[in-house]
Fold each of these.
Amino acid sequence: MHTGRKVLYTGASGKLAHTILPILAKTFSVIAVGNQKAPQKGDWQSVQADLTDDKLEALIEQSNPEIIINAAAMATDRQCYEDPQAAHRINTEVPEAIARIAAARDITVIHFSTDQVYEGKQRNYREDEKATALNIYGQSKLNGEARMLQQQGHSIILRLALTFGLGTGDALPFSHALINQLQAGEQVNLFEDEYRSVLYIPDLATLLVALARTAGQIPAGIYNVGGRQSVNRVEFAQMICRQFGFSPSLINPVKAADLSFAEPRPADCSMNIDKLLAAVDWQPRNLDEAIAQMHRHYHSR
């Protein structure tokens, strides 16, 4: 049932929006904000705006939302390494500004951070453990978290695991790009020594609905958000092969530790999600079940 509650969603031209916006729009009045290009069309108001300029406050004032979901980010370690100033603006300064403006207007902010704030030297990270980001991307997101919390508003910060699902156009999650490669019979090199608590994007969308419905009731702060199963990309791809009928011989396991990167990479960002599950009525799907649903959706498109 549509609540009429108004949600401002930033990052609406990104990889998650293809799945999240239609689910949000079933329940809320959504204003979708894209930065580089206009968001996809749908049952929501689409706005193109540069969040890094001085128009952010005017955008929020004119939209007058009850909830802001900030999915806008420079979200790859390579992009952040190549342009650290842009990473700082988008991943640190913009979240701070959104939290400051929202605090003054009593608006709940739901912000996407990352599991890459963790060092990756252990498993089952909890929110109260020290976060030590290894690269510019993780550090810019970690700094954004700290600055948001300093604003003393109602900010719910979601440390997202690696997400998977389907997309459209050039905004494809890694899983959709992987399916396309395997469908074409291409050999794929994948890391076998990096682990993540992978999360199905539709499950993230239903979490956002639950959080927005109960805005103001969920305590502000940091929450780990991921699935219950931690896998590396080889294991994930093998599950894709079993479900879609692709040959597992197309998967070529490689070790990230054997390769040279400009910055260190966290090896195991597996997260404990007990704090989130205690705070909100939501459960992520079993990984096999989620991949089976993705398979059905892929063939029904």
Amino acid sequence: MIKAKKSLGQNFLIDKNILEIITNYTDISNRIILEIGPGTGNLTSYIIEKNPKKIVVIEKDNELANSLKNKFNNKIKVVNDDVLKIDETKLFDEKVIVFGNLPYNISTEILSKWIINLKNNFWFECLVLMFQKEVADRIIAKFNTSNYGRLSIICNWKLNIKKICDIKPESFSPRPKIDSSLLFFYPKKNYIKIDNPNDLEKVTRIFFNQRRKMLKKPYNQLFNGDQKVLEKLKINLNLRPQNLSLETYYKLAFEYGKLRG
């Protein structure tokens, strides 16, 4: 009997209804599948039933990785490594569908890494990912709301995001103390180009560093009071960071890149 490790943020999904919802949400037959944090392989079993072309799973835990190899043999390829250290683009020759009951302690780090490192060609068709509900609420938050912030802006830059459902603690073993949410991500056809994605990371970090303060101080810190950018983007410096739309932040990051370059 394998026990979940708290240090790795492990909570194994055991609810058959939720497992079905996940694997039925998008057509995965004859597709290449990447699963992050498969744990004991409950979701993996449901994925196999849908007849994908190939399944690769990334599992950091040595004990779980060995267990998965024994359980599924040649039906899956097990990569026993830390997902934060892997370049997913080198694992596949074609686009993949990604499933993940992400370790809650590093879920935002994983997603941010994927988005910041995204080139013009997406390496995935779509992502079906689970988060703590409070994190999911921040990812899908609209501007002018209290949950809106850096995570909302970065995640929505190149991706469309839909909420599939909320999931109660009893769907897991061991039970977490919080609710979870399942989100669906798929690439946008059109988005504002930013030469260096780290510019978006920096702009949002500085603006939301003091989210209750007005925009004047962070704007001046980044743009040295440049009035042309203010007029071009029609920004009122008396507003607060959460009052600016997603598109305004993408344009700010673009302008910041031009200023630096």
Amino acid sequence: MINAFSVDVEDYYQVAAFGKIIDPKDWNNRESRVVQNTRKLLDILKTAGTPVKATFFVLGCIADRFPDLAPEITSHGHEIASHGWMHQLVYSMTEDEFRDDVRRTRKLLQEQSGQDVLGYRAPSWSIVKRTPWAHRVLVEEGYRYDSSVFPIHHDLHGNADAPKEIHPIETEAGTILEFPPAVVRRFGQNLPTGGGGYFRFFPYFITARWLRSVNQEGRPFVFYLHPWEVDPGQPHIQGAPLKSRFRHYLNLHKTEGRLKRLLNGFEFAPIRDVLARSR
């Protein structure tokens, strides 16, 4: 079965875990490592046993600051999708602010990449029950699929009642497909196994076993990673809460090795291609 591989293109200091101690106004004063780390991921994907094509959800502010990055990603045959402009949580915005955010990002990414930007992923999976307008706005702004609703319990996001498989969401403006990150049902609850910090937390054999179980149920999964997760040498953020430091820095030195095993153990394609196959 062909699964979806995705990358959330953001810098190490832009994550929600550091949102209370780093003002976005200071972002450009910090050492940026997103271009070099994205290139590292591009190389890893290219040199896998079978080269992997992926979906890159790019922040608009990153594309604006580094206008050659999205075209470079595209030149490797990958899909470009939207991660919003400034990594703002959807539930922290009004409907109008969200519309401006996703419209502005999509317009820039399409101009830079030459692609029709079809997909969106909310920063920190922040499309939740209290943002009932979000999917309608995405449809109205030209998006065809979303990958933002995490069917788990979490202190920052999640909707544990949401379906865990690819499913259509009907809105007043039309239909959009939702492709949630991978979870498995264990111990009476959904456990995340689709990448990010969970990929670094669980031993690789557990992740691989759980992902295979998703395929054995007849469903493709979407896996996600961030460029900063293959950069154990990144600067440490001072003053971050213990929980935030744990989530961000845990096992960064193991990510690259585990990723190479994953790429050789499963088949992957961009999200748009996996969705086309699932229809």
Amino acid sequence: MTPKFEYSQVVNQEGIQRLGNILEQCFLMSPGESEIFFNRLGLENFRIIRQGEQIAGGLATISMGQWWGGQRVPMTGIAAVGIAPEYRGSGAALAMMQHVVKELYAKGVPISALYPATQRLYRKAGYEQGGFSCIWEVPTESILVKEKPLPVCDVPGTHEIFHQLYQHQAKLNNGLLDRHQGLWQRISRPDENEAVYAYLIGCADQPQGYIIFSQHQNQDGSSIRLRDWTVLTTAAAQTLWSFIANHRSQIKYVRWRGSGNDSLTLLLPEQTAKQKSAMRWMLRVINVSTALEKRGYSQGIQAELHLEVQDDLVAENNGRFILSVANGRGEVTSGGKGEMKLDIRGLAPLYTGLFTPQQLQLAGQLDATETAMSAATQIFAGGSPWMADFF
């Protein structure tokens, strides 16, 4: 017999304490560290799953936006999915994810994203790989970019100009977030015994980028970790590299989070920048029509795609849809020929452009006519999707 689980918000202090204990054990936190997490995201954004009176686990929902085709699509990030050890394998995690997907649909949320510890759980809830998050590393002595065309000035890490500059960059990159305030706090506010340094690139009245970083020492040597960065011009990118290179007398290497094919590395004289790690975050299309209409598309494309979608969790996503794209926007109507058949999971990497329609067909994620394949290839072409934030 399948255990019965109940899904809800955290309603009392006892529940907060229990959820905090579960998350601290799941994510190797120090005792009491969960309180910082609750304060940063807001308790109202946490959900729990109960069996009877016992809390089996919980998660956080983070209301944000994500940029696709130059348009901001409302997105809810899922974080801190944790199940108490004694309830693992009981179905509590899947029940919780199914409940949160239905809750997001009821709220009109188009898409959701998360970082998986295991893909199998989230695939059962309709999520699939959506884009990259890579950590790059380069030795400072190999940067060798000497020209610094712009001034660099020290500013507070909480400076409002960072938000404005970041949004300019985010709009041009598929997958970047319209960040929740809690993510900004994590960037600008140091951990215990850690200093954070922030610099504006360019003149104060015409900034062209910024860099926020911390410095670290471990068995591999000294390093700079870029907590956040934005460059809006070639001059800003050159200045960023030159500024970092000038730390080489004390700093051995620099690490930053970037895309799978980070264009910053093109300014380096040799291929000395290496990916230290690469992972793929996952995306779930919560509402097919809304997600396709909120997304942006290339201005030069005029095409029509006939979809047939299957979603075992959200009944309203099942059926045939016509996506008509023109002047950079999409319009969805019900019906059509169903020339591209796919389930809700297969729609995610098509939507993000992580894989081409041909690659998805080869992987068994969709089945389509030549006409539909050609239309989808045009519609979803774009830069490789990535995310600068981990949540």
